[in-house]
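ARCHIVE ENTRY
Sequence with per-residue tokens
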Amino acid sequence: MAEDGSFMPWTEKYRPSSLKEIVGQEEVISILKAYVKEKNMPNLLFAGPPGVGKTTAALALARDLYGEQYKENILELNASDERGIDVVRGKIKDFARTVSLGEVPFKIIFLDEADSLTAEAQNALRRTMELYVNITRFILSANYSSKIIEPIQSRCSVFRFRPLTEQECKEMIERVAGKEGLKLDQKAIEALIYVSEGDMRKALNALQAASLHSKHITADAVYKSASRAEPQEIKEMMELALNRKYLQAKEKLHKLMIEYGMSGEDILLQMYRTVDMLSVSERQKVAIIDKIGEYNFRMVEGANEMLQIEALLAQLLLIK
């Protein structure tokens, strides 16, 4: 890897190294800055969807606390890989019982994807958190806080991370594009925001993939690199079916699946997001969403994707 990080994925290359650089999550970040100022903090539980800054906030907090001694004072584990009770009794306990280096009187153990820990491991972790509370603090990151047992939740301050707003996504996209010397159309930015759904990791991955073709990023390049169809194309396909033009709707579906390489579930999710754009009554929108849910269940159970979506388009004819 080059010293400038040129061979790194942009999600890592542009990961903020300080709390001051983080975009969004203002309420959470302001409290974390106060912890840095006081050089004291409780155990923390970060909960929220993927790609909204949980890991970044934890690592930036550690960097701001320890400065150059950052690596010696933090143990970072991904609980989805190391999720058994042996890890808690081994790596975590060994690190937790050693004293910290530097001015801050405690070390940090950061458990990413902690909701993947087994129940036995979580119960062992609860005891470790009690025993070494004077010299070790824990930061747990989870997509679903409900999968963390109550005794651990009660020992942590819980912070809820929300999906990033369109403005926050736009700010970060423009920052990265400027540093990489990219030219973005306004529609390309809108496409990146649509593709990301508030997940900055998705947005940066799509931007990096699109940049491989040209320094001038267009909306079409974004959709193709992210294997997504343009919302307008999904809308046209649904409207054709609603207007009893089934063969044309079916032809549009085949084009989307072949041209964009989309899976059946991807198309269903985009159809769901497009329902509000359709010129039909509220009752018909409810019926369409009900059918999308039914056919999604069928595909999850293993039914043929193409057959099921063609059948769903046929159902749209009956709804109208």
